[in-house]
Design brief:
Blueprint lengths: L3 H4 L9 H28 L2 H8 L5 H8 L18 H35 L12 E4 L3 H35 L1 H33 L7 H8 L17 H25 L7 H29 L6 H7 L1 E3 H7 L1 H7 L4 E2 H11 L15
């Protein structure tokens, strides 16, 4: 079994090039969705423009028949109506007038803030030189769980954005044939990867729960903006307040997104159409919000903080990084620090089998 450092050779800043290329590609695709989506959001938000192509001749008499309730159905099995379900019209208006613009504003706004922050503030560099001594922060199992969940999250985000905005972006650009294959593939991936993501997310939340309970030092960390306000870096344990906020967003909004997705993924438990429509609205709002926040998480863990990606790629962090960003945790585990050169040598001799020479600080008891 090869270690991550053998599969991903490190370079100057200890960041795997292939992972950075993947992250850049993800950000570029999101920029494409947002930039092109802005030019089409007016069409998406115009219910008359869409309905005229789907349901022609919607005159006043037709709407009177719809409103009197004669054609309303309450289950997915009794599809004998020949007019429009009024609740479906409400769902479409909410989706087009509110959810679609909300997604563009949330994701586009986050991308803009990240770009401005990087240009103005720059990368969070280490205040002291690297010591050369390493501390185990993430075991191989924890890293595998993290990258599995992260990969599934990115795939679900991209396919979900395609389902929401894709017809306004790719259909006019590439035509019906390409669009049909693309949306079919997106739907298939989204439907089948969603439950797998849900299972792995619950596992990783349970595994890291003990490190994410709020503590007194978290309020000071937030007051200082993680070190951006005032002098000195605020105290932090194994997880700082920002990481804890991301954890609890996944544990709350993430679970809601998973549950609403399962309601739509398995439409064979007597769900009414109203239930499916509300599940779709809740799922979209939660998923778009999490995608926007995830962009900040990705930035901080890669380009924004020196040494952060190194820890999740190799499992080890430098002593200087631990003291600067997680000083309370460092005081607990500093006796476990090992020489970096000796660690690399031992890994080479063991051919990747000596990936965990010390105790795992992230393993729940």
């Amino acid at each position: 079994m090869h270690s991550i450092t053998q599969i991903w050779p490190p370079f100057r800043s200890w960041q795997p090039p292939c992972l950075l290329r993947m992250l850049r590609s993800f950000l570029l695709l999101l920029v494409l969705f947002v930039a092109l989506g802005i030019s089409h959001v007016a069409t998406a938000a115009d219910p008359d423009a869409e309905i005229n192509g789907a349901v022609p001749a919607m005159d006043a008499d037709t709407w009177r028949q719809v409103k009197n309730g004669d054609s309303f159905i309450d289950t997915r099995h009794d599809s004998t109506y020949n007019l429009i379900n009024p609740s479906g019209q409400t769902w479409r208006l909410i989706r087009n007038k509110w959810i679609s613009p909300f997604g563009l504003i949330a994701i586009g706004g986050m991308l803009a803030m990240i770009t401005l922050f990087y240009l103005i503030v720059g990368k969070n560099q280490l205040e002291e030189p690297r010591s050369g001594r390493k501390i185990l922060r993430w075991s191989a199992l924890n890293r595998a769980l993290h990258w599995s969940v992260a990969t599934l999250f990115i795939l679900l985000a991209l396919t979900g954005l395609n389902l929401l905005y894709g017809k306004f972006l790719f259909k006019p650009l590439f035509g019906d044939a390409f669009w049909a294959s693309m949306i079919s593939g997106s739907k298939l991936l989204h439907n089948y990867l969603g439950p797998l993501f849900g299972i792995l997310l619950v596992i990783i939340l349970m595994r890291f729960l003990k490190h994410n309970w709020p503590k007194r030092e978290d309020f000071e960390w937030l007051r200082k903006g993680g070190g951006m306000v005032g002098k000195g870096h605020p105290d932090a344990g194994f997880a700082n307040a920002g990481e804890k906020i991301w954890f609890w967003l996944l544990a709350t909004a993430g679970i809601v997104v998973i549950a609403s997705g399962l309601v739509m993924d398995f439409p064979n438990y007597q769900q009414t159409r109203d239930t499916m429509q509300w599940a779709n609205i809740i799922h979209a709002i939660g998923a778009l919000g999490l995608t926007a926040v995830a962009l900040g998480h990705i930035y901080i863990g890669t380009l924004g903080t020196e040494g952060a990606l190194e820890g999740m790629a190799t499992g080890y962090v430098d002593e200087s990084w631990a003291k600067q960003h997680h000083n309370l945790w460092y005081e607990e585990v500093k006796d476990q620090a090992v020489d970096g050169e000796r660690l690399e040598t031992s890994k080479g001799h063991a051919d990747g089998k000596h990936d965990n020479p010390g105790p795992d600080p992230a393993r729940p008891t």
